[in-house]
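Sorry to interrupt, but I need a hand with the structure work. Could you add the entry underneath, on a fresh line?
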Amino acid sequence: MLRKVALFALAALLLTSTAIAAPDAGKAKGKIVVSGKSVGVTTSYAVERKGVTRVYLVDRPLSEDELFDDDELAASVQSKGVSAVVVRLSPDREAEEAFYFHPQLPAGLSVTELTKFTPKGKSEDRVAGRMLFDDDGFSWSFDVTFDAPVLLQLVKEEPLAADASAADVAKRELQNRDVKFTEDAFRGAVINGNAEIVKLFVDAGMPPDTGGALASAIDVKSPAVVKVLVDAGADVNAMGPYKQSLLLNAASMGDPEVVKILLAAGADPNIPNEYGIAPLSSAAEQGHLEIVKALIAGKADVNAIEQPYGGSAIQVAVLRGHKEIIKTLIDSGTDVRKQKDALLELTQDEEIRAMIEAAARKK
């Protein structure tokens, strides 16, 4: 078993001026593709700092400065044409975030959640496997197999003061995890669904509404992150494009857990968008039964008539043939008598027609 190599990241923190050996490199095979042009990857490194590992996939060997200082690596991209992808792994060695270093891309361009890491074996002293990022929505990608020895990066740091605030502690923990306290990094953690990192950000003082974080967490269907942001005071009634509420977004996305979190935090279930569509109608149309029930429990108006089109939740449910939702709406007090003729015109399904007729006869 190979031993880990202890190195200090910053020369200013070294206790002596003794020269340090060149970093141990591993092998890699694959390519980085940017705008249709590929660069072959030959070299890999795995650097561990306080339990967080960064895997470097590079087209040539790196110097110590390039390996342990992103600014030096970015400078070499411009001066030497270095191409690299750096993938940060969680303590469980799952890919969290990838950073591109390439002459045609902004230095340290970050991509979250999309990198796939297939490990090869388990070892404390090596990281091996396949890293893959290939998404049609981007003009860059990579696909590399690698095997790299772990280099243990030791950084001397001043201890926190005894009276350090909770924000100071959270910022230090982010630093220890190699996460910069920036809005871009915060957004990356939100999109990646990393609730633990998002919690550290808000504890460190990042406003929970930064960059529309709650809307992003809803879009990626991350209840854990939604809960962290809501608990930190994010505005659950914020409006997006087309005057669409976050609750309407969540209802449309079909995630009942997120809907319940928003409702429990005070989200208004009766705010329609500029087209008159409310969360209940959206959920009813798409067949999201559990969400329909959650919205009704949250005081959604089952008899609301959408304007300017004059529709209702039960009308779209009848039109789509969602029988369980129709029954739920009827049982929850929907007044079918006023809509009977309109509802019967929307369906030829005998079972649904019978449900409508029976409900209309009730006083």
Remarks:
- The chain is about 35% helix and 20% strand.
